[in-house]
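Worked Example 4.2. Consider the chain below.
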Amino acid sequence: MERLSNDELQKKLHDVTEQYKIIEETICGAAQESGRKREDIIFLAATKTVEPKVINHAVGCGLRYIGENRVQELLSKYGEYDLEHCELQFIGHLQTNKVRQIIDKVSMIQSVDSLKLADEIDRQARIRNKVMNVLVEVNIGREENKSGVMPEQLEELLCQIRDKQNISVKGLMAIPPVCTDKSSICKYFDNMYRIFIDISAKKLDNISMEHLSMGMSEDYREAILCGATMVRVGSALFGERNYSKTN
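Applying the procedure from the previous section yields the following structure tokens:
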């Protein structure tokens, strides 16, 4: 996690304030352009490597959703988040043996990509007498090195999950391949949106399609224009990650 001197921190807080305004304006404009309202889009800040003081400053600016990618980092920062004013979600790849460590700390797990993981989330949630909201991750680019269920296997996985009493499927999530131009990324976003609409139209029992989580710092505007209801923005808000200052 990045550690900042006092001068660095003050500059970072100023930058976050300005960037937050820009992102909000961009989201508002893209929502209107896509025929929706600002409140139809969830702005979730991806907070990997970001110091809690900086995260909480963004919350003070109006941010209401934050997401961590790594279990250990989430645990190390958990006591410092301003969770009275924001909602914490898990957005990274999750190993089954780590589920028990976060099940009582997050409001949603965005990265369910297998029945094995869903089974463990259901089991751990049942132990704690809670229902865990999840998104099912789709490998929209069919990349071997990425997690996510293949599009043609999505409906089968949803049908396997839907009867689990301690899991509530709230939608889908995707991380498209890195693209060098906007038109290429939009093809993936458009395809993902069609899948989202198709699943919605099937009206599967106990499956809700409230959220389509796609789009990050470099392409969140395009994702909204293509139908995203949630965007995960990190570096555009907090600046580029400086891994040389992580521990």
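The radius of gyration is 18 Å. The mean pLDDT is 94. Compare this with Example 4.1 before moving on.
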